Amino acid sequence: MGVGVAVEALIVVDLQVGLVSGAGAVPDALPVLERIGGLLARAREGGVLTVHLQNDGPVGAVDEPGTPGWQFALPVEARELVVRKSSDDGERSTRRRPQWTTR
Q: With a threshold of 0.85, does the pTM exceed it?
């Protein structure tokens, strides 16, 4: 997304409410959100494939499915892919997902 760089995809990993707000938030969460929001805008404008990895934490975790902390921190558009994972290792837990080969 820089000058002269062809970008085929933007993968946004675990950008969920519970991980960017509250006591357990990543350091400097606001600048991180702003930066990723800008990258998302550029990817959308350029028609770049965007994939959002969403962690399904265990019961009681800040990112437990269905809880407010599990929700995405930034909006996901209908044309973007969402891949849920049950392990903090996104590559291992999504390795054989058909979504990776459908585009």
A: no
